[in-house]
Amino acid sequence: MMVPLKRRKVVSSHTESCDGDEIKFPQVVLFLLERKMGASRRSFLSHLGRKKGFQVEDKFSESVTHIISENNSGSEVRTWLDSQVKGQTPPVHLLDISWFTESMKAGHPVQILDRHKLQEQQITEAEVKVFSVPSYACQRRTSLENHNTVLTDALSLLAENAELSNEEGRGVAFCRAAAVLKSLPEQVTSMKQLKGLPCLGDHSLRVIKDVLENGASSEVESTKQSERYKALKVLTGIFGVGSKTAHRWISEGILNLQQLRDSGQTLNRAQQAGLEHYDNLNQPVTKAEADTIGDIVQRAVVSVLPGARVTLIGGFRRGKQTGHDVDFLITHPEEGREEGLMPKVVSYLEAQGCLLYQKTTRNSYLEAQGGPGRPSSNMDRFERCFSIFKLHKEDKQGAKQGATETVNGDPASCLHTLSQKESCEASDEGSEEEKSSTHRRWRAVRVDLVVSPISQFAFALLGWTGSKLFERELRRWAGHEKSMSLSSHALFDSKQGCYLRATSEEEIFTHLGLEFIPPSERNA
Ligand code: CTP
Ligand code: MN
Ligand code: MN
What is the bridge-based pairing of β-strands 309-313 and 93-96? Predict the structure, then answer.
């Protein structure tokens, strides 16, 4: 086969430098560091070297064997070198200018003596804190204390953009990379610390390097500015609108809420409510508001089924101080008593004027004879209700004291709190002023309710506490490492061909061969 022209050129240049000088010492490839030396002196010395038959590179590459610097310490050069290469640095001599001048005088590379070598403090190597974490997020503890928010924000934005663009694989990859950084005990300051960390692909490493060196990632910044991303974000910010719908609208020239309103698009019930309460639903829900809603839900549930229990799940169970919604899991200690509970709770809440929107789905989960296999959607087979609550603003203080006792507590303590009617109904609705969502006396809040039979409660609790990545990783661990199938209903052991029962989250972790990770450390 003919060697391509380009390649031949490169091959022949091995004996010639770019200045056209002959290379006499092909095993020595020099690079002069401009730092502190200055561009003109560097250029002069490079030229001199080439005249003497040395190969001197203008750009640093992994083929460089000798780095020459002037007035730099060993650790300064090492830091610079680390910023040039990803992962393991290639073996290279870090030399003082004296080695270069002596070699020029001698007309050949002189033997490297100790005095030529830049003194690298031994501690520099040891000082670099290299992190090490297990590769599945469910094997790690990830608290809310994130020491790398700048990096994780950048990666999370790319993850979000990938997901909004229906590139799920890429989205998950960025999400995993962000999760690894979230779990680190300290701030990352150098690429070198990342050596050996799992889930950091080339793309993520490039983004991290960009942020470490320049304070920001160009890819992230341009994504943020892009009209497409901005439109996807605004449109999917409407409750009931997913990325598919948003893409369709964008292709029809709808980029913002006003254009959507003007377009005359047919919206389903969820989307109508989402558009109507857009501002409220995009304003984070506080813990205090979550507690107030917990109190309202608790009172509704025990009114229609005494003895039923309500548990706060989702982000608030993980200790978050704000959320995009509030999630509750409802059960009853006697198996079967929970059946048909959701419609009753919803009717009760509706009669109290608490609901601006609700959509209830019925339980469709049945343990199949051969095991659950991999249901297409693990999460959606309980009796559940997606809703929008009408939360009276004065409740924030009013119901607070009662809230902690009533959620999961004695139903009788509800008697001490405000009546349900007071909690939900806006007293002076209707005046012009009240129409603006910021001035009126209530706000809309997204609330998810799930009902589980007690026999599946531990699985539901684990499956609905999140984070989403933590859940995904638990299922991946179960499948890939244990030949088990985990859902929010059950755990099936494929090797033994049976379901593994559990009455607590701890038992499920034990079945899975994992150390128990408490909810507050599942913020992957
Ligand atoms: N979930 C689910 N099925 C859905 C939506 C969510 O099983 N269709 C689960 C998620 O896996 C997660 C939990 O419900 O474990 C909570 O989801 P969500 O409310 O979306 O997220 P949070 O972690 O609560 O975060 P936020 O505070 O933003 O609400
Ligand atoms: Mn939530
Ligand atoms: Mn939710």
Answer: unpaired
Tokens of 262: 């003007």
Query: Which residues does the chain have with pLDDT short of 50?
Result: 1-14, 369-380, 395-396, 398-417
- Closest Cα to atom 15 of ligand 1: 466
Q: In terms of C-beta density within 10 A (0-12 exposed, 13-18 middle, 19 or more buried), how is residue 307 classed? A: exposed
Residue 473 beta carbon below 6 angstroms from any ligand 1 atom: no
CB-CB contact of 327 with 379 (8 Å): no
Based on the fold, state whether residues 395 and 487 are members of the same structural domain. no
> Of 184, 134, 175, 142, whose CA–CA distance to 157 is shortest?
175
Handedness of CA 487, 493, 498, 502 (dihedral sign): negative
pTM: 0.73
Pairing assessment for the beta strands 29-32 and 66-69 based on DSSP bridges: parallel
470-480 residues labelled b (16+ CB within 10 A) or e (exposed): bbbbbbbbbee
For 329-332, the CB contacts below 8 A with 24+ separation are 329/450, 329/451, 329/452, 329/457, 329/460, 329/461, 329/464, 330/297, 330/301, 330/449, 330/450, 330/451, 330/452, 331/451, 331/452, 331/453, 331/454, 331/457, 331/460, 332/305, 332/307, 332/308, 332/454
CATH of the domain at 517: 3.30.210.10
Angle (CA) 384-389-392 rounded to 5° is 155
Q: Are residues 355 and 417 in the same domain?
A: yes
* In a shared domain, residues 396 and 445: yes
Give the end of a domain, one of 454, 484, 508.
Answer: 454
Distances in Å between the alpha carbon of 449 and those of 287, 366, 421? Answer: 17, 20, 20
**Residue 84: both structure tokens together:** 């040039």
The last residue of a domain, from among 98, 122, 146? 122
State residue 367's pLDDT score: 61
- Would you please indicate which residues are annotated as catalytic (active-site) residues? 325, 327, 448
CA distance 200 to 208: 10
Alpha-carbon distance values, 231 to 114, 235, 236, 260 (Å): 61, 6, 8, 11
Pocket probe mutation, ligand 1, options 468, 487, 522, max atoms within 8 Å of Cβ: 468
In whole angstroms, what is the distance from residue 193 CA to residue 464 CA? 34
pLDDT of amino acid 2: 45
CB of 320 closer than 6 A to ligand 1? Answer: yes
Q: What is the pLDDT of residue 86?
A: 72
Expressed in angstroms, the distance from the first to the final Cα of the chain is 53
Is there a domain that residue 512 lies in?
yes
Question: Ligand 1, residues 325, 446, 462, 473: which to mutate, most atoms within 8 A of Cβ?
Answer: 325
Q: Kindly report the CATH number assigned to the domain that includes residue 245.
A: 1.10.150.20
Determine, yes or no, domain membership for 114: yes
Q: Write out the residue range of the structural domain in which residue 405 sits.
A: 285-363+380-454
Please report whether residue 34 resides in a domain.
Answer: yes
